[in-house]
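Here is one chain, start to finish.
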Amino acid sequence: MKEKKDPELKDREISFPDAVLLVQDLKDPEKTKADPGMAFLPKYVEALAIVKKNDKAEYERVRAALKKAGCSLRELKKTVEEKEAEKREEKPAEPKEPPTPEGIHEQAITILKTGDPIKRLADCCGRMVLGADKAFKKLICCVAVQDVKQSSGLHPKLNGESGGGKTWVILSFAHHLPKDAVIKGSMSNKAGFYHKDGNRVLRVLDDYQAGNEDLDTVIKQTSSTFHEEYQHRTVVNQEPVVLTIGSEQTWAITSVDSSQDVQVLNRQIPINVNDSECLTKAVNQKTIERYGKGEQQFPEDEAVEVCREIWRILREDGYIDVRVPFWNRIEWIDTSNRRNPSIFMDLLVAHTAMKRFQRERDEDGYYLATEEDFQAAKALFTDKDAEELVKRLTRREREFAEALLKTPAGLTRGQVAEALHVSVNRITQLANGEAGKGGLAQKLPGFEIDEITDTMRLDEDGRSRSVRKTVYSLKGYNQFEGFDGVVRLLDEPISRDEDKPGKDGVREGVRIDESKKTDRSRGGVESEERESKDSKEKERPKKNKSSSQENSNNISLSYPEENPYSGKESIAEGQKGDLTAKVPEPNEPKQKAADSENEAYTDETKIRAACLMEYGINGSVDERKVAGKLKLPVEDVHTWLEANYKKTNTGKYRQ
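Its structure:
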């Protein structure tokens, strides 16, 4: 007897209600006994897969009925899992882009060849958002570098108070991109590996919450391998599977603060949204006007179509190569972060990429950047957000720091909240960040948090009450340092000494002051040995003498150049974690002692000596305290400690 086909289920996907109705047949013992292979028919297998996904209780009831009928549950399970895998691999049909209206392509070509495409795009986006011109230009650069092979990738980080307009900025910009170039909405940690979104994609993560370590890892890894697909090895149904996420994944993150991991922040270009009272009034009036004119929130007009066509033309042109012919005239002055030069150079080549049809090409086919591109990139890099690039501080964090600078003795949490016109809980968030990440305590050396007990007298009878207060203070912070000169273009090429290695393996010119050469004679070595022995004698009684602890702490952290361990410690290749001090013997070759002298004053040596002494005194190492004493970036101390010490649950490090 032939199977009777259900005309309602023919040539269409089975819905969940249809699936529930279908599996009722499998619970009928007469039908399943009459046809033992009934459960393996395609429509029932698909229905079982749908019910299993949406109603596990019903699925188990069907399995129990089939078991009584003598059906092989092992084979049925295997068949259903194969169907589930098949449905996962089915790629949904991509929505087709509507045809480009007549005349739009010609306008876009004219702008790319003779106009200023960056200004045109920013102006068009600016119709929807007031006061965000530079924000849009930075976002344009972040997408433009996807096409440049030499780029390391730019990832925008939009900060601002709740309701300040950061989401509106990124969504307005995304509205002017082709549909296949942007991904919006929420996503799970590994969603990017399962959805085949392709290459050169802008991923918008709105109101991103800190503490999502899995997603932070994906962001860090895909950012590090910007022009390569990133692989994730996992197991599905006890079978090894290699999942991939496309190349050129640009992560656009919006949040109230920069509360992400420092390593994530280092890969981002900050964009602080202007939420001033003056601009807020203008925005409010603009909103009322839009309703009055009956305008849509995201209009689909000719200007938007021209912007999308500009991006389509650039994307269809494919990947390009860019050279900066005047590279040897660029002097980088800021030394706070090694990734900042890459961010700046990406801004530079992004301008070249956007104006590629107006730039010359060399004999190898490389587009050549111009000094105009340099000046445009510098204007974006050294704007009001420059301090966040250099010191990773948001606008609110800068205001917090400036308030502390006015009161060197420190301010209580309530006093800071009053000065910034925010709640005390907001102050705690700014100081400590989310889950201990991203706050001023992690970003700013010299930022200190003290818990004090203040006794308040209640009446004349002597009754009093103790109140515990949190006091914040800031020392050794110069809010203007570094912003008068981050990068500049010289008239003549910089003279670079390529023969001599500088600090940390970076080649740089070395000038030796003959008047300060150290005597490396036998007597000098013996003097160093005596000094080292004296230092060890000072360290022994530290458990019983608090004053000795303070002296040792001052020597090792505040003045690392006078540390008795400097010059005596050396780390051999492959023994980076060995912190044992080694004193050169008098009969060792003079050259070996000279090598120790040259190594003594590197940042790594200072960090090593400071951490060794800090650990000996306190039994653990606080990276913020070491960075503050040495006046070095917290990232440098953090990187060294991660490689050589073990992190405890308290956030400190032990050997």
